[in-house]
Backbone:
């Protein structure tokens, strides 16, 4: 019973924090297979591993092991349910998905950041894991992703700018060369726009010549490269070297995403921050302006 409770709680808290199994594994010093086994109830971590997981997720050991958490979660009435929402996004219309998400937002009074971190990011993580396990096809994964994209766009329209600035800094976001996962970048752009930034989201497949022209013309303050798959790290490194040669003292660069390599911050002066989560990338953008 205890092992089952732990596995369910671990999976819930990991997704609530917006972490993949791989990210949690790297953060706690175990393999991704070990995390998958913990969540599947096939293995139980050692005392040291349990403490590391608790620290990484910033949740107490009592909550990780507690039946009270499960009873509280299952006893909620009228609130959104992630499993139910996933089924709606997967099998029903986009309109029905929007209606459910809007009701969830209103009942729990979710901020835009809450909506992304508590609903959208866990849903995307679950989708990716199901695809890797072969539980859904690539086509189904793409359908879900495109529906989520529309939900992000619509959600952004429901929130007004909540921060007035004397000067609105300019943030430019794009994916690393070759990278085509851009939903985290889209959420990043939405949150910064809400915070009073001027936002330019270029998305995917941007030639370097075009990027340099945009940076010069629009007087960009911060450039954020998003990378999900480590296979694209060499292409990203080349792009960063080009930007450093031309804009070394004019812009600050953030590299964000699950494929981000922290060594880039040591290798290239133009790279101010490297981070793996959405919350960090938003916070780091603000830090770039303050420093």
Residues:
């Amino acid at each position: 019973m205890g092992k089952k409770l732990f596995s369910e709680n671990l999976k819930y808290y990991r997704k609530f924090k917006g972490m993949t199994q791989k990210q949690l594994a790297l953060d706690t010093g175990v393999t991704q297979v070990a995390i998958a086994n913990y969540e599947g109830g096939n293995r139980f971590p050692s005392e040291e591993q349990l403490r590391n997981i608790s620290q990484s997720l910033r949740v107490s050991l009592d909550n990780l092991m507690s039946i009270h958490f499960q009873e509280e979660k299952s006893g909620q009435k009228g609130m959104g349910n992630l499993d139910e929402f996933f089924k709606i996004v997967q099998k029903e219309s986009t309109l029905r998905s929007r209606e459910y998400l809007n009701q969830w937002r209103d009942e729990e009074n979710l901020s835009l950041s809450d909506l992304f971190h508590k609903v959208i990011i866990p849903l995307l993580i679950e989708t990716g894991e199901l695809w890797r396990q072969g539980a859904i096809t690539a086509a189904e994964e793409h359908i879900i992703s495109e529906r989520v994209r529309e939900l992000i766009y619509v959600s952004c329209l429901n929130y007004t700018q909540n921060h007035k600035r004397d000067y609105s800094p300019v943030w430019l976001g794009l994916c690393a060369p070759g990278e085509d996962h851009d939903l985290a970048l889209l959420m990043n752009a939405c949150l910064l726009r809400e915070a009073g930034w001027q936002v330019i989201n270029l998305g995917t497949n941007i030639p370097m010549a075009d990027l340099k022209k945009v940076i010069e013309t629009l007087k960009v303050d911060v450039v954020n490269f998003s990378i999900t798959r480590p296979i694209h790290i060499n292409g990203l490194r080349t792009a960063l070297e080009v930007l450093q040669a031309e804009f070394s003292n004019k812009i600050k660069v953030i590299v964000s995403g699950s494929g981000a390599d922290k060594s880039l911050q040591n290798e290239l002066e133009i790279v101010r921050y490297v981070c793996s989560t959405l919350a960090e990338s938003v916070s780091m953008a603000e830090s770039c302006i303050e420093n």
